[in-house]
TrEMBL record:
<feature type="domain" description="ABC transporter">
    <location>
        <begin position="2"/>
        <end position="227"/>
    </location>
</feature>
<dbReference type="GO" id="GO:0005524">
    <property type="term" value="F:ATP binding"/>
</dbReference>
<keyword id="KW-0067">ATP-binding</keyword>
<keyword id="KW-0547">Nucleotide-binding</keyword>
<protein>
    <submittedName>
        <fullName>ABC transporter ATP-binding protein</fullName>
    </submittedName>
</protein>
Length: 227
């Protein structure tokens, strides 16, 4: 469970990115942060892995104030996927996915075997493992990004507009894959998008942000649509 308790982020230039966020993100569900550009979704997401420190309030993971956690240890339990997959250009696809386990001291053979399993999990052909990131389509790169984020088997997965840069047909395919993955893995996923259709499709819970960094609504997609 991730809880925001009066969490706020005010930038020195006076911008209120997040006003006063009280929200509980439930374990094992997909919670989508949706809202227009600039409404504080990314800032709120980044408070969870301490890429952003709130200027007020507290964020807890499983009841523990994340300021009391070692940032490196905290992040080991939190996968992070962004719009441009951010793959290492000089590592093969397989080694991109194996990077984190290797850093954690897992033996090379074991890390690569695990990476191969993850490739299958996200729907990438084994032969892709030998390719370089630039040889993949945008959609395939996003799959690699998801596999890499899952490599340390984190209980929490943060996804910031991961599918926004790919064309609509590929995006639908990636959404299907994520739904399938989530049925298998039951991670605590926090997914940021400005696309309400995507939010309704993927979310078990939807947090609607509005300009000024305020939470306008929090509900299930079904209830959100019938209001
Ligand atoms: P969203 O993800 O909903 O598009 P963000 O969380 O990225 O919104 O941004 C919320 C607000 O905070 C925006 O007005 C944005 O311009 C502002 N902001 C984000 N980062 C900074 C920063 N480093 N300095 C000043 N303002 C920022
Ligand atoms: P999409 O529009 O679905 O993102 P692309 O048009 O970028 O796909 O790529 C289509 C196919 O061509 C993909 O299977 C991708 O792996 C392959 N491909 C793209 N760029 C290269 C490259 N530089 N070398 C080899 N294969 C490539």
């Amino acid at each position: 469970m991730i809880t925001f308790e009066g969490a706020a982020k005010h930038y020195p230039d006076g911008t209120v990115a997040v006003a006063d966020l009280d929200l509980t993100v439930e374990t094992g569900r997909t919670t989508v942060f949706v809202g227009p550009s600039g409404s504080g979704k990314t800032t709120s997401l980044r408070m969870i892995n301490r890429m952003v420190e709130p200027t007020r309030g507290t964020v807890r993971v499983d009841g523990v104030d994340i300021r009391d956690r070692d940032p490196a240890l905290l992040r080991r339990g939190i996968g992070y996927v962004i719009q441009q997959a951010g793959l290492f250009p000089h590592r093969t696809v397989l080694d991109n996915i194996a990077t984190v386990p290797l850093l954690l001291g897992v033996r090379k053979r074991t890390a690569r075997a695990r990476a191969a399993e993850l490739m299958e999990l996200v729907g990438l052909e084994p032969s892709m493992g030998r390719r370089w990131p630039h040889q993949l389509s945008g959609g395939q790169q996003q799959r690699v990004g998801v596999a890499r984020a899952l490599a340390a088997d984190p209980p929490i997965l943060l996804m910031d507009e991961p599918f926004s840069a790919v064309d609509p047909v590929v995006r639908t395919g990636l959404q299907d894959e994520l739904l399938r993955l989530q049925r298998e893995l039951r991670k605590t996923i926090v997914f940021v998008t400005h696309d309400i259709d995507e939010a309704v499709r993927l979310g078990d819970r939807i947090a609607v942000f509005r300009p000024g960094g305020e939470l306008a609504q929090y509900d299930t997609p079904e209830r959100l649509l019938t209001e």
